[in-house]
Amino acid sequence: MLLARTETGWLLENMLADVDPFERRAASWEHYDYGEVAFVRAVITGKKFIAWLSKLKGKVQGYEFRIPKPQSRVNSERYTSRSRLRQLYLLPYPFTLFPVDFENRYDGERRSDFTPLVKDGLPSFPNFGTALYRLLYDLDRPRGTDIPRNQIMIRMSHAEAWSEDVTVEREAVMVGITGTQVEGARLTIGGPSGVLVNEEMNQPGFHKYEIRSPDSANLWLVLSRGDRWLDSREVGGNSR
Asked: Which helix (H) or strand (E) element contains residue 49?
């Protein structure tokens, strides 16, 4: 999370909350305090997170902070693996985003893109935006991109089963299926000539299927379980 120092104490400005039991990444740092802003990361329970949102305040890593009142309406969008629609929040497997916007924006003092962010003993950055992208999203900031502000983004992973590597050959397709619960998932592969594969998975790994399609350069695949879709992809090109 990004905290901004105000006259009344620390105020939450941005947060990325990962609901991700599949991938527990070890934190290489816990908090960086640059004076006017502080970056904080921690693993907490769902119960504690709910308490923060209910009481609009919290405490973590020694920081007591307030949360601006969120808007009452929260939409969500589920994304497939390899999705490029929300590159800032990409995961290697499917995920759902819940953006929680604040009713009132906290603009504070405008932070210059031409002033380095430095503090004795802490990592230095050429500007605030670069620090935000690296410390909040673990990404390099693309040139010309805006800085996300005044939002809690909840990212829920769906690592049950997804398509990893797909190789299309002239008369065959090889699909790598992985996840925490692959057994029982259904793989359907189709193209311009119709459905080519419709098979229930019994284990993760690479699965090769012979295909008799006049247009093997344009294929799609869907992973499902019962009435729920797990992942979907479009592939093609007679190559990897």
From this structure: helix 46-55
What's at 86, amino acid-wise?
R
Q: Which helix (H) or strand (E) holds 55?
A: helix 46-55
- 112 and 142 together in one domain: yes
Which has the higher per-residue pLDDT, 239 or 186?
186
SS3 118: coil
Give pTM, 2 decimals: 0.85
Q: What is the pLDDT of residues 79-113, one digit of tens each?
A: 998 877 677 888 889 999 999 999 887 666 667 78
Indicate the number of domains in the chain. Answer: 2
Instruction: Give CA–CA dist 30/79, Å, rounded.
Output: 29
CA separation for the pair 4, 48 (Å, rounded)? 21
Residue 218, by phi and psi: left (phi above 0), alpha (psi -120 to 50) or beta?
beta
Q: Determine whether 165 is exposed, middle or buried from the number of CB atoms within 10 Å of its CB (0-12, 13-18, 19+).
A: exposed
Q: Which residue range forms the structural domain that includes residue 167?
A: 162-235
DSSP state, 147? P
